[in-house]
């Protein structure tokens, strides 16, 4: 049997298609492209991020999940401008996180990103009231009238359901109230992106739900793009998109959408799991899938008309 390869015209067309294709992440607010972070301690290297790809669109509210040590905090620290990647590319709202100088980095941390930490006490200054804590980032930026700062602080506290806590210091607030004030602080300078690392980690599940509602309010009312790292299954299943990180790379992604039954009118949430195919064609299969089918080392592949079949390798030669 003779097979004919692609003609010169085919090759030229493919090359032109590749050239005309928009650049990776051209329409995303956050773009991580093959991001690498290597830590060296006492001559031992740890690859915390091993070529991580992630795109987040403007206006998204999404969650990042993953086992301990998978690289979530490393990624958040890079996106927050607190740490620098070893290689790859990372851009947030047009700012290049690899090439930023010290001055730009300061401006980035003050104006472009807001951050909420897990430790409630780390988010607020203990000797300032809730309203003063929220006004502080605006004071540090400067250029805003005192009356505007006061008004915005109170509006944010009201929006997040803690308007009545305005004159209290952090130790006079519950953990949940402190986190909602912390969200207001992070939103004070109208950041493009709000990053939160385990914001409900120190709270009980009911309080955690209310904190999540506060993030949702910020996302819907102010249009802020929000990325939340969480172990909390309830939070992870409340967002439309949950991205899993495994061994320093994004592995799978769950997308949820609401469907309305045409006859009964009943709403239900449909979730589907996706795997990430990187630009080299690499695909990471979920370990529970591969373990169930005893897949290891080598798998059998077949290209079908509309899908690719993957089977365990049963040849034993
Ligand atoms: N400053 C550092 N120096 C050396 N190694 C580090 C440093 N920070 C993180 N690591 C290592 O990088 C890997 C990823 O850590 P990271 O904190 O990002 O994981 P994580 O997914 O946030 O975990 P957790 O859920 O436990 O917070 C781990 O092996 C960790 O030990």
TrEMBL record:
Signal peptide: none
Pfam families cross-referenced by the UniProt entry: ABC_tran
CDD domains: ABC_MJ0796_LolCDE_FtsE
GO molecular function terms listed in the Swiss-Prot or TrEMBL record: ATP binding; ATP hydrolysis activity; transmembrane transporter activity
InterPro entries: AAA+_ATPase, ABC_transporter-like_ATP-bd, ABC_transporter-like_CS, ABC_transpr_LolD-like, MacB-like_ATP-bd, P-loop_NTPase
Ranges of residues in domain ABC transporter: 33-272
Keyword ATP-binding listed: yes
The keyword ATP-binding is annotated on this UniProt entry: yes
Key words of the record: ATP-binding, Nucleotide-binding, Transport
GO cellular component: membrane protein complex; plasma membrane
Name of the featured protein: ABC transporter ATP-binding protein
């Amino acid at each position: 049997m003779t097979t004919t390869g692609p003609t010169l015209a085919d090759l030229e067309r493919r090359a032109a298609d590749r050239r005309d294709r928009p650049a990776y992440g051209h329409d995303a607010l956050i773009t991580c492209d093959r991001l690498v972070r290597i830590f060296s301690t006492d001559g031992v290297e740890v690859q915390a991020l091993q070529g991580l790809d992630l795109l987040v669109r403007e206006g998204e509210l999404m969650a990042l999940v993953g086992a301990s040590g998978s690289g979530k905090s490393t990624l958040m620290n890079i996106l927050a401008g607190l740490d620098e990647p070893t290689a790859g590319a990372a851009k947030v709202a047009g700012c290049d996180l690899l090439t930023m100088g010290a001055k730009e980095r300061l401006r980035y941390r003050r104006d472009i990103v807001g951050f909420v930490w897990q430790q409630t006490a780390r988010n607020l200054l203990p000797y300032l009231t809730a309203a003063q804590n929220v006004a502080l980032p605006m004071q540090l930026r400067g250029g805003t009238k005192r009356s505007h700062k006061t008004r915005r602080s109170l509006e944010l506290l009201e929006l997040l359901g803690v308007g009545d806590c305005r004159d209290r210091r952090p130790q006079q607030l519950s953990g949940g109230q402190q986190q909602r004030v912390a969200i207001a602080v992070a939103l004070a300078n109208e950041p493009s992106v709000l990053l939160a690392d385990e914001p409900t980690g120190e709270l009980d599940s009911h309080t955690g739900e209310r904190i999540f509602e506060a993030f949702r309010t910020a996302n819907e009312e102010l249009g802020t793009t929000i990325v939340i790292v969480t172990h909390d299954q309830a939070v992870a299943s409340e967002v439309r998109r949950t991205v899993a990180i495994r061994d320093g790379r994004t592995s799978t992604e769950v997308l949820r959408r609401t469907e309305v039954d045409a006859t009964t009118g009943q709403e239900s949430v449909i979730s589907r799991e996706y795997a990430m195919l990187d630009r080299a064609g690499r695909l990471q299969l979920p370990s529970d899938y591969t373990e169930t089918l005893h897949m290891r080392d080598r798998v059998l592949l077949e290209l079908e008309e509309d899908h690719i079949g993957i089977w365990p390798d049963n040849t034993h030669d």
